[in-house]
């Protein structure tokens, strides 16, 4: 037994000593977790990051001064017009218009150079007189630059766009379709354009188009053109992972669906599933199943039942904001009723099929019978024009919608 009262008091204080949690719910500052060498590099690179961020903002038309990108665009146009001729044949004596074009291009080049030098000098002067930036401000600016560069990288990644499929299921198009699109867009289409316009005009068109691509007017024009079905059909030409014959067919029948999807069927013991199977059947179907089982008395307990679930997608599109949903869809996308078919390489393809009513009225192949009396449908799922889900309710960004119908079959 401990007879020392002082030791007893100390032990009691240890039990009830308060413990405080520091920085609870707060993230550590960048200055605490960033090595000094990296902090020094970021501090010296801060002016360069500001210059790059403002340059990307002007290219992407994100500047606060909306007139400034237009002035730069006009100067670039004058420079390109003076150095890239539009005619292939140039006379020996330069006309007055050519001299004027050269003079305007020269003045525009000097203007851009002097404006850039003035901006750099004024920026360095203001940073020298202002307080040094914190590491958090530098990191935020760096994230802004990386975000803009990532957007430009995704837009310039033509190879990725060529391999993308837009039917809402396929991740990539086949190599045959990819080669066809490269041949059409990269060779045939370019030769046709150069045949009717000069090389100079061709180069000026693509340079100016790249500079004005992110402007509000250009993006609005692209969205207006995208509303035309002819433009969409031309854009999606040659990149789909299905054949033209799939468009023209009336849709897959029940026989074809069973053949294409029977690999996804499951085998269950007949003894365990039989009570549930007979419970969901009508009188005529009940008698038919019993007759089938009577023919297969041998090995009844060991007999397996093959079950296959058919899932049909019902798709609709809204063409006008105040109109009702329509069963008319674009020719290159999924149709009114479609079914997802698994390919040998693991990918999936949307194939057009008959409606659920017609599939239910069809006579099934031998030894195949319906388990459910009717199709079981889900609620509508709304999506945008690319069939990307937007929610369970209709909204301003919803242009398409889809719901699934399921029904199961069994095979003895």
Outline the structure in words.
It is a single chain. With 412 residues, the chain is α+β, with helices and mostly antiparallel strands. It has three domains: 127 residues, no CATH class; 62 residues, no CATH class; 167 residues, no CATH class. It contains 17 helices and nine strands. A hairpin with a 5-residue loop joins strand 7 and strand 8. The longest helix has 34 residues. About 5% of the residues have low confidence. Keywords: Membrane, Peroxisome, Transmembrane, Transmembrane helix. It is found in: Peroxisome membrane. Pfam families: Pex24p. It is a multi-pass membrane protein.
What's the short version?
This protein is 51% helix and 13% strand. It has helices at 5-15, 30-33, 36-44, 46-59, 67-83, 96-129, 135-156, 158-163, 175-196, 199-211, 216-225, 229-235, 245-248, 254-261, 270-279, 283-295, 356-361, and strands at 266-269, 304-317, 337-342, 348-352, 368-370, 376-377, 381-383, 389-391, 400-411.
Shape: elongated
Order of helices and strands: HHHHHHHHHHHHHHEHHEEEHEEEEE
How many helices? The count is 17
Distance between the termini: 82 Å
Strand content: 5-15%
Mean of all residue-level pLDDT scores? 76
Helix content: 40-55%
The helix/strand class is: alpha+beta
Point out poorly predicted stretches.
14-18, 166-171, 238-248
Number of domains: 3
Radius of gyration: 34 Å
Q: How many beta strands in the DSSP annotation?
A: 9
The major pleated sheet works out as: 9 strands, antiparallel
Main location: membrane
Pfam families: Pex24p
Subcellular location: Peroxisome membrane
Transmembrane segments: 37-56, 68-85, 100-121, 178-197, 203-226
């Amino acid at each position: 037994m401990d007879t020392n009262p002082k030791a007893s008091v100390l032990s009691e204080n240890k039990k009830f000593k308060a413990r405080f949690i520091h920085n609870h719910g707060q993230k550590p500052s960048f200055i605490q977790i960033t090595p000094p060498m990296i902090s020094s590099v970021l501090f010296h690179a801060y002016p360069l990051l500001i210059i790059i961020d403002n340059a990307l903002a002007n290219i992407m038309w994100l500047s606060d001064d909306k007139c400034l990108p237009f002035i730069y665009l006009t100067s670039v146009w004058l420079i390109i017009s003076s150095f890239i001729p539009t005619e292939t044949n140039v006379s020996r004596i330069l006309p007055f218009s050519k001299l004027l074009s050269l003079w305007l291009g020269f003045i525009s080049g000097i203007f851009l150079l002097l404006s850039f030098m003035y901006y750099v000098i004024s920026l360095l002067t203001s940073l020298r007189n202002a307080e040094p930036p914190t590491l958090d401000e530098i990191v935020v600016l760096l994230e802004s630059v990386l975000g803009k560069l990532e957007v430009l990288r995704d837009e310039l990644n033509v190879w990725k766009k060529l391999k993308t499929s837009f039917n809402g299921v396929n991740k990539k198009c086949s190599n045959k379709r990819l080669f066809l699109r490269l041949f059409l867009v990269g060779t045939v289409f370019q030769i046709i354009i150069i045949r009717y316009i000069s090389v100079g005009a061709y180069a000026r068109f693509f340079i100016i188009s790249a500079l004005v691509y992110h402007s509000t007017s250009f993006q609005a024009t692209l969205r207006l053109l995208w509303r035309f079905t002819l433009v969409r059909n031309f854009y999606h030409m040659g990149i789909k992972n299905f054949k033209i014959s799939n468009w023209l067919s009336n849709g897959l029948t029940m026989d074809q669906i069973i053949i294409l999807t029977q690999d996804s069927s499951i085998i269950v013991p007949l003894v365990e599933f039989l009570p549930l199977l007979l419970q969901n059947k009508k009188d005529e179907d009940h008698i038919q199943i019993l007759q089938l089982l009577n023919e297969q008395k041998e090995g009844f307990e060991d007999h397996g039942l093959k079950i296959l679930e058919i899932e049909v997608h019902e798709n609709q599109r809204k063409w006008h904001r105040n109109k009702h949903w329509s069963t008319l869809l674009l020719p290159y996308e999924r149709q009114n009723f479609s079914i997802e078919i698994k390919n040998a390489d693991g990918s999936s393809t949307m194939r057009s099929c008959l409606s659920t009513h017609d599939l239910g009225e069809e006579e099934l192949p031998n030894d195949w019978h319906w388990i459910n009396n009717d199709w079981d449908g889900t609620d509508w799922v709304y999506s945008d024009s690319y069939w990307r889900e937007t929610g369970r309710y209709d909204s301003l960004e919803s242009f398409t919608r889809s719901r699934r119908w399921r029904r199961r079959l069994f095979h003895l």
